[in-house]
UniProtKB/TrEMBL annotation:
Belongs to the protein kinase superfamily. One of its GO terms (biological process) is smoothened signaling pathway. It comes from Oryzias melastigma (Marine medaka). ATP binds at K73. Residues 44-307 form the Protein kinase domain. Residues 1-26, 307-348 are annotated as: Disordered. Residues 315-330 have a biased composition (Basic and acidic residues). It comes from the Eukaryota. This is Protein kinase domain-containing protein. SUPFAM superfamilies: Protein kinase-like (PK-like). One of its GO terms (cellular component) is PML body.
């Protein structure tokens, strides 16, 4: 399929357009709707709606030209500007190799009845849904390390092109294909992604549960907010639940001052992995550093002993798993192949 070029700088128009005398509200998208892209580039059949949010819907569609499944993010006409904002971010993000840097692959975009439609590759399920289906049973240290390395490579790539995701959370981290490539992940949803120099002090961003301290406190912001959210996500995968009360900003701020890493270290059930767990907790402390000036960078994190130590085999990890004896234990690890860190400074 031909790729439609992302505009160097998309322009936002005024009010949503009307077509054929019908308002956008009357032009509801339904299953079996045909979405025409630009001429000779594809016709998409809506097969299923995967989710809906403030800005629109995500639909599982089939390209009737290639017979391939895709995911199309369909922005509400009233949120047209947010769709154009995402296209502007994609103009920068597509400078990176999506597979090497663990980013969802952008395929096409078009407009349909005042909806901005952004076509992406079809992925499996989010980390949030994955954890939900396994009743929030924590991951093994091997599985966490596999995911952590990939997310840090993603942050490294975004930093190389001067972009910050600004909304990393389990919902926006997708498993590519858990059956064939266990724990290979990609970042999705670039609706809030921007250049750090455009991040204004005092801006509210990020899900409250994963919100960086500098966002809560109204301090200057940059790409380091993403390191906080990746660290918190890894802690969530390790624990199975949030590691702080999250009823309010004030409660989050207070509890962060009282965080016990010793409790986290002692939580892991398999005591044969004590050294690996201790290294993970040390890395976590550096990722969840309150002061962003002291927070570890993606480049530094990838060189951390948690990744560079001699790794046990996946089979060994599996044999030591206590999943079969305790619902609270960590799950068995599966052997998987994940993208390796690209050469330093190389932009694909």
């Amino acid at each position: 399929m031909l790729r439609r070029r992302v505009p160097a700088r998309a322009r936002a128009s005024g009010h949503p357009a009307r077509e054929g005398g019908k308002t956008a509200q009357q032009q509801r998208l339904e299953v079996n709707t045909l979405l025409p892209s630009r001429p000779n580039c594809g016709l998409y059949l809506v097969e299923k709606f995967l989710g809906e949010g403030t800005y629109g819907k995500v639909a599982k569609c089939r390209n009737l030209t290639t017979n391939k499944e895709v995911a199309i993010k369909i922005t509400k006409p009233s949120r047209r500007d947010s769709g154009l904002f995402e296209l502007n971010a994609l103009a920068e993000i597509t400078k990176l190799d999506a597979d090497k840097y663990g980013l969802i692959k952008f395929l096409d975009w078009f407009e349909y009845r005042s909806h901005i439609c952004i076509v992406y590759e079809m992925l499996d399920q989010s980390l949030y849904d994955f954890m939900y289906t396994r009743r929030h049973r924590p991951l093994s240290i091997h599985e966490i390390r596999t995911i952590a390395r990939q997310l840090l490579i993603s942050l490294k790539g975004l930093k190389e092109i001067n972009m910050a995701h600004c909304d990393i959370k389990p919902d926006n981290i997708m498993l590519v294909n858990q059956a064939s490539e266990p724990f290979r992940v990609k970042l999705i949803d670039f609706g809030l992604t921007k250049n750090p120099r455009d991040m204004e002090t005092g801006t509210h961003m990020q899900n409250l549960c994963f919100r960086a301290p500098e966002v809560i406190l109204g301090l200057p912001l940059d790409e380091r907010v993403d390191m906080w959210t990746v660290g918190y996500t890894l802690a969530w995968l390790y624990r199975g639940f949030h590691i702080h009360p999250v009823d309010s900003d004030q409660e989050v701020k207070f509890s962060r001052c009282c965080l016990s890493y010793d409790d986290l270290k002692n939580f892991y059930q398999d005591k044969t992995k004590t050294t690996e767990v201790e290294l993970f907790i040390k890395l976590l402390r550096q990722m969840l550093e309150i002061d962003p000036d002291k927070r570890i960078t993606p480049e530094e994190a990838l060189k951390h002993s948690f990744f560079t130590m001699e790794q046990p085999s996946a089979d060994s990890e599996k044999s030591n798993s206590q999943e079969s004896t305790s619902e609270k234990g960590h799950s068995q690890a599966k052997k998987t192949t994940v993208p390796q860190e690209p050469a330093a400074g190389k932009c694909f």
